[in-house]
Amino acid sequence: MNAQTRAAQGSHNTARLFPNPKISLNAREIRRLRGLVPPPPPPIPKDWAPIDAQNDRVAAAKKTKKPYRYKRPKNLDEKGKYVLSETINCGAVRPISSVRFTPSGRHLALGSADAIGRFCQRKNGKWEVVLLFDEHEEGINDIQFSKDEHFAITCSDDKTVRLWDVRTGKQHRKFVGHQDYVFACSVHPTSTLFCSGSFDETIKLWDPRCPEAVREIKAHAEPITGVQFSPGDGSVIASGSYDGLTRLWDTASGSCLVTIYAEQAGLPAKQAPVSGLRYTPNGSYLLVSTHDTFMRLWRVDTQPVRASRFFEGCRSLRYNCNNGFHAPKNREGPVVVAGQEDGCLMIFDMNTGKLAHEVQAHRSPVLGMDNHPRNSMFVSCSMDKDNLARVWRYESHFSGREGDPDIRPPAPLVQAPDDFVVPPVRQSYAAPGAMDVG
């Protein structure tokens, strides 16, 4: 069992799903996390409604718990919706904690709390496991691929980072040096370097040919929850932490270039812990998620760094729910996909910052998501006891099939006074925009 799910399962070791340190725990909660007392039943969200409409007296007499159904909010995008494309059962015995497509999108990796990484390939119209990465001693928190797709990097609660040969499934090298859970990792665009962020508050840079770290950066005052090399040249490393800070580091020297405070965005943040971060594909913007119901999109290619967009209403105050980008081919522009603690996926329009879709994807906190690099779909995973990953695709109301250009229906024939028939005119929507929001 890994850091993603250990808090919910009642073990004494917790990392990815450990409640953020800004929230104090009483003695009973601490004993529960250590497995000494059974966990209390989860509270019922206010927006859940019982399916059975019978009165409470009949339900109490039967002494049975009513099933609950989530009231799905209205789809705010009139041009399309997100639908479930596929459910992936990889045989995991613990919840899936991380998901990652290869750069080409031909393969998919699933990291699980059972300490096994599963490498999947598309066969017979579905994703099937072809290789296992099974050398970790504890659960996997993150997984990344080299650009040539020959190697995979995994980090785990066993305080190690491991390099795998995806052609054979064998461990190529084990990297030891962190003193606490390794929470996140990132591969340099040239695949000659990779970094890892840990709960020991440090970032370590590694050369794949050397088992020892080539550089250690004492980056934050509290556990690190996200690291990523800048796309393109990889000259900058972005990091986020429970101390509420986001920092940009020079890859070559290890010096701090910029420190970003959430308060700089002009919203009351009070140093809300950073739960995750991700660069846009063009490297101009950095999406930072915090435990204050906000996500902030920072423009980091200019000086000074400034806030570009706000995404409000997120329900992620205790757990590190992963977020990312999605750019469907049959939609006008890109979106930001945000996992929530109630299992929902909140999907925001990136150009306007407004909520466009909300999908009840899972029943438990969403732990990870990743966008397919070529097709109009993404994959998500959660703490659900069914241990499944789900693939979602955008379905336009105006396209014949997924991936087609988004075309309006033809206009009706208009009869002119002189009996001349005006031919129908087709008007297409604007082409999908780039991730850069200007």
From TrEMBL:
Disordered as annotated region, ranges: 1-20
Record-level Gene Ontology MF annotations: histone binding
UniProt repeat feature WD, residue ranges: 133-174, 175-216, 217-259, 267-308
Domain called WDR5-like beta-propeller: residue spans: 93-393
CDD domains: WD40
Polar residues bias locations: 1-14
PROSITE patterns per record: WD_REPEATS_1, WD_REPEATS_2, WD_REPEATS_REGION
Keywords: Repeat, WD repeat
SUPFAM superfamilies per UniProt: WD40 repeat-like
SMART domains: WD40 (SM00320)
Cell inner membrane listed as a keyword: no
GO cellular component: Set1C/COMPASS complex
Keyword Repeat attributed: yes
Source organism superkingdom: Eukaryota
Listed PANTHER family: WD REPEAT DOMAIN 5B, WD40 REPEAT PROTEIN
Record-given protein name: WDR5-like beta-propeller domain-containing protein
